[in-house]
Amino acid sequence: MVPKHILVIRTSALGDVAMTVPVLKQLLQQYPALQLTVLTSPAFTPLFEPLERTTVYALEKRGKHQGMLGIYHLFRELKAQYKFDAIADLHNVLRSILLRSLFKLAGIRTAKIDKGRKEKKELTSKQNKKLVQLKTSFQRYADVFAAIDLPFALDTQQSVYTQRPLSDNTATLFQPGKKHIGIAPFAKHEEKMYPIEKTLVVISSLLSDPNNQVFLLGGGKDEIKVLAEWENQFPGVINLAGKFSFKEELAIISHLDVLISMDSANMHLASLFGVPVVSVWGATHPYAGFYGWGQKKENAVQIDLYCRPCSVFGNKPCYRGDHACMEQLPESWITTKALTHSST
Questions:
Q1: Superfamily assignment of 5-146 in CATH?
Q2: The dihedral formed by the CA atoms of 212, 217, 223 and 228, expressed in degrees to the nearest 10
Q3: In terms of pTM, does the model score above 0.70?
Q4: Do the domains 5-146 and 173-342 sit in the same CATH topology, yes or no?
Q5: Where do the structural domains in the chain lie, given as residue ranges?
Q6: Cβ(152)–Cβ(145) under 8 Å?
């Protein structure tokens, strides 16, 4: 029987949660009677606001939903408030496994994501590396719904969201007639970051053309501090970090002509709005399945090395010790691609 109301679980991280949005939108399009409740971090709510027939249920993981007892309380809350036909676990971590198991014991169908650990291990292996394109996270999410009688075909060329309206205090940031280029230089793990000194060369090169306007994106105390220093170093550069709400940042991103990003959440946020992303890849690789929705393959900037990729998430230190995947990547490759998109 086709479910009428599904609980969708994906609570972190930001990029992975953003990757659920195109899948959920197309699922809803192909099943017009379907209702979704998405369990996620309250901070991520703006990602889902434009989706029809979708409610966000906020996970308070450091509050009343903390620990095993908190998960049980969460189960009781959800069961009392909604009548779910099925549970789609797009996370498959301890918290979601516990919650999913409680619903299963209550007689509700469940399905979980297959993360493809075996093939990802082969992709990142030092010996006998299998350098092939793996199933994308988008398809892995879609497979979960197929397991609960909701099969559908993904169209990665279909846009997700249109530009969001700018607020009064963000609309003034954009100088008319200029090319608006975003740079998101950080990632959760250092192995996925382009070297700072090389990033500064990229910024300087972009600013050599007065028709370009550069926006810096980041978050967290350390990143905010660094980007504030860059804003002072380069007159005319606009640092967005720590100054706007997540909802406002999404609107700003949607108005960019192009974004330069690491393998990080900002790549996925920009992809939701069809913004071309020049993505920079080092320890990780698009073949692992985390490339941006609808992004052209040629927008990925990377060099071929026998050791790449050495990690799925970039959380392992460079075993060569020289970070050649990033150090040998020419700055001109990044700027050339970015300028090509910003001039169209």
A1: Glycogen Phosphorylase B; (3.40.50.2000)
A2: 40
A3: yes
A4: yes
A5: 5-146, 173-342
A6: yes
Tens of pLDDT, residues 98-144 = 999 999 999 999 999 999 999 999 999 999 999 999 999 999 999 99
Strands 179-184 and 54-58: unpaired
Sheet containing 179-184, strands listed edge to edge, beginning at the edge strand earlier in sequence: 238-239, 212-216, 179-184, 258-262, 277-280, 300-301
Do residues 89 and 144 lie in contact, with contact meaning Cβ atoms separated by under 8 Å? yes
At residue 83, what is the residue type?
K
Helix (H) or strand (E) holding 252: helix 246-254
pLDDT in tens, 4-40: 999 999 999 999 999 999 999 999 999 999 999 999 9
The number of residues making up the chain comes to 344
Contact 307, 274 (CB under 8 A): no
DSSP assignment of 295-340: --GGGEE----TT----SSS-S--SSSS-HHHHTS-HHHHHHHHHH
Tell me which CATH homologous superfamily contains domain 173-342.
Glycogen Phosphorylase B; (3.40.50.2000)
CB of 207 within 8 A of CB of 236? yes
CA atoms within 13 A of residue 334's CA, in its CB half-sphere = 29
> Do the Cβ atoms of 20 and 51 come closer than 8 Å?
no
